[in-house]
Amino acid sequence: MDNRKVILMIIPGLGQGGAERIYHYMSKAFAEDYRVVEVFFNLDDQVYPIVNKEYYVLNPVRARGIFQKFRNLYHRVAELRRIKKAVKPDFSISQMDGADYINILTRIKTEKVITCIQCTLVNDNSIKGLIGWIRKHIFIRFFYRWPDAIVPVSQEIQKELEDFCGTPSHKFKTIYNFADIAKVHEQMDEPVVPALDKVLSENFSLVTSGRMEEQKNQRFLLQAFKRFVDRKPGVTLFILGDGQLRVPLTAYARTLGLKAYSAADSDNPEGQYDVYFMGFQKNPFKYFSRADWFVFTSLWEGLPLVLVESIACGTPIISTDCKTGPKEILSFNQDPVSIGTAPRYADYGILMPPSDSEPLEQHIELWADALTKLESDATVGAHYRTKQQERLGMFSLEYAVQSWKDLFATLKK
Description:
Layout: E1 6-11, H1 18-30, E2 35-40, E3 55-57, H2 66-87, E4 91-95, H3 97-105, E5 112-117, H4 129-143, E6 149-152, H5 155-165, H6 181-187, H7 194-202, E7 205-209, H8 218-231, E8 236-240, H9 246-255, E9 260-262, E10 275-279, H10 285-288, E11 293-296, H11 305-312, E12 317-320, H12 326-330, E13 344-345, E14 350-352, H13 360-376, H14 378-387, H15 397-411
Parallel strand pairs: 1-2, 1-4, 2-3, 4-5, 5-6, 7-8, 7-11, 8-10, 9-10, 11-12, 12-14
Antiparallel strand pairs: 13-14
Helix pairs in contact: 8-13
């Protein structure tokens, strides 16, 4: 008989996002000491494997409109309540707010309900329209008062939720996202195809990684990179990731006059290109480790795992100071970065102001100036490659798992 404590882990799916990757790592790590049961809404866009043999797929029909969304919510609540009664979890951990709502609504007496907040909810610009207003001002403001514990991935998210929802501070325990550092080190030296290896080794190369969506702001990155290329011909940008904006972003790069390669259209990267759209990569680290700088232009985040993984690869970072996360990873100074104070050469990387404020042209020029300086002065990158390694301990798997175990012990007292 298995007498281990039971953890029920709930997430909408296992797509290609950072939250899904963290969920995968957590499931694997918890399974060493606990009985882990997993619950998914559906697995339509699955990228990461299911770790544990015990799992359920709720699989409601995809929602079309507000009434279907509420019907799906009712179905998921009924199914999850049935699962909880059968499994009798000690802890139910949900990730992403859709999963958080049904976790809270289906609480049973024997469990402690924990919500893990992977992204800013207060400053998420994708929450808009009538459904967005309901989600933000009714669901988020109401539901996040009721879990037994809330685990945000950054201190800034905790402060946002305390202020916005009125949740008492004693319910929070911030646990930073973590990288599987051993896996990163194992994979970062894997070979890339010779044509791309030549580009990365001979050219000043930038790399970024993330879903191709509004949040990641790759359109702005292309604008800034075009200005940089005009000053320094021969530099290259590798964009890793896929999403709904892949085709329009590839077309936009070409309208800017950039020579763009797309792995979705051709498996032959031979030739001279400015931008390489590489699509989703199971091993992005082999590109991170070979690039000169990791560039990050997101409009909002939680605590971006790719920055931690870039540090693990020894690749220096230049990032927007978006809400939330980059600043907590890269700096001890938590004052906002503005156009007048940028670039900020912080403790573990370079911070730039959020680029969604006017004037856009000034942000483009600021990034072009910063990249031009980094290309001409290799000592800056060398400094950060050495310095940032001392930061890795805060974002290790071991540190995070112990923090979770401490939380479990506190909740069970």
